[in-house]
Amino acid sequence: VGLVHRDLKPGNVMLAKRGSVSQAVLMDLGLALRPEESLDSQSKLTVPGGIIGTPRYMAPEQFEGAKVSAATDIYALGLVLYEMTTGKQPFGASTPLAAAVRRGKRPPAVSSVQAGLPRHLDGLIERCLEFEAGDRFGSAEEVAQALKGEKAEVAPTASFLKTRRTLILAGASGLALASAAVLERAK
Asked: Is 7 a catalytic residue?
């Protein structure tokens, strides 16, 4: 429908039975917006410059306060897929700040974490979790096609640590999260 959910996580995905088929349904659209909406329009919901979403499932651009797109939700979907297939979080850490900083590194391939998983899931999930939004799948439909095996190219298009810029952005994301935590505690 052209919305970016901005808080895609396991708790917002429910199974609903439709006839004899169970389908996943995305719930809680309270933070959703259209990608073309300016960042200024977000101030109606939050403090300007604030971070919106559940930190454990946020894309790097959300930590940066940058414009969101379908790629933002694709990143969160990659996190959910990783967790569903391995039972572990790819960027698990003792604090949200530490988890944000780890987003600059590639997590272990799902097939190396959980024996018996098809190797094609490695590239598919890695592409969802690319640090740069433009390197991720362009839509949920592309991810669905790749999951069904209809799209052969699922290899990541870029390395997480391909430039110093990526490291700088990861650090900035961590600082943004830390600032948000300090402001929240000050309330």
From this structure: yes
